[in-house]
Design a protein that fits this description.
The protein is α+β, with helices and mostly antiparallel strands and about 270 residues long. It folds into 2 domains: about 45 residues, no CATH class; about 200 residues, Peptide Methionine Sulfoxide Reductase, Chain A. Helix content is about 40%, strand content about 15%. Helix 4 packs across helix 9. Keywords: Oxidoreductase. Belongs to the MsrA Met sulfoxide reductase family. GO terms for molecular function: peptide-methionine (S)-S-oxide reductase activity. InterPro entries: Met_Sox_Rdtase_MsrA_dom, Met_Sox_Rdtase_MsrA_sf, MsrA_helical.
Length: about 270
């Protein structure tokens, strides 16, 4: 099945945008790409990258039973940072979803909405916990254009039921009606790379340190998600210092220095 999927991607590399990033899938794809000779697809790591990845001490946990949540609550830069620093959230990515037009991009979203996809450990944070942040961290009564609308895309009947129940509970806190939509999850297209971990990518020196430490893909990296959250003004210095991300000392020192200052961010 994996090889068949890889060959399908080979015929249409753009379909890589649609692949969900469960840890086992990525591990299998990377391992297969190293041995099956499909370099032309761009999946084979260079010798230098393989050495760096092998030597990397960066902590990239693979959690059995991890689940996916997909939400839209305005500009996805801030949403990804918010959840990146949330305990229990393993990985994040931003993109476009909810529509029917294939292969949207930032300059042509068509009928899609900016969305954030979260991989999380339900043993640490529940789906209800994910939605608790959702209802509290934006105004669900404010109506926006399709690009920035408030929406929850559910991946199961259980998620749908929880979304509907928590919406009713949240409505009690607002005088105006909540306009948040609840809809089934659709194909999720990755946004352009410069949108991914936007807060983290603004720190070029740190990005260089992380690359040298073996970070190959910021989209699928747990460490990148966490740092993006901290650098986006979420979490705390104490939380960062108590967390073992496997960072080299110079990366730790860089982040501590930034967090000791007042972090002020905006969406644009």
């Amino acid at each position: 099945m994996l090889l068949r999927r890889l060959f399908e991607v080979g015929r249409n590399p753009a379909t890589l945008n649609c692949v969900s990033f469960t840890g086992s899938t990525i591990k299998a794809i990377n391992a297969t790409a190293l041995t099956c000779g499909i370099c032309s697809m761009g999946l084979k790591l260079s010798s230098r990258s393989r050495v760096a990845a092998k030597m990397s001490s960066l902590r990239e946990p693979k959690v059995t039973g991890a689940e996916i949540a997909t939400i839209g609550m305005g500009c996805f830069w801030g949403v990804e940072a918010l959840y990146g620093a949330t305990p229990g959230v393993l990985r994040t990515r931003v993109g476009f979803t909810g529509g029917d037009v294939q292969n949207p991009n930032y300059h042509d979203l068509a009928d899609h909405t900016e969305g954030t996809e979260l991989e999380y450990d339900p043993a640490v944070i529940t789906y209800e916990g994910i939605l608790d942040f959702f209802w509290k961290k934006h105004d669900p009564t404010e109506k926006h254009k399709c690009q920035y609308k408030s929406i929850i895309w559910y991946h199961s009947d259980d998620q749908k039921a929880i979304a509907e129940r928590t919406l009713k509970e949240a409505q009690k806190r607002f005088s105006k009606p909540i306009v948040t939509e609840i809809a089934p999850a659709k194909v999720f297209y990755n946004a352009e790379r410069y949108h991914q971990k936007y807060r983290l990518q603004g720190h070029k020196e740190l990005m260089t340190i992380l690359k040298n430490a073996g970070m190959d893909d910021i989209i699928t990296s747990h460490v990148a998600a966490r740092l993006n959250g901290y650098l986006g003004g979420h979490g705390s210095l104490a939380q960062f210092q108590s967390e073992d991300l496997g960072l080299p000392d110079e990366a730790k020192a860089y982040v501590v220095k930034v967090l000791q200052k007042s972090v002020t961010v905006s969406c644009h």
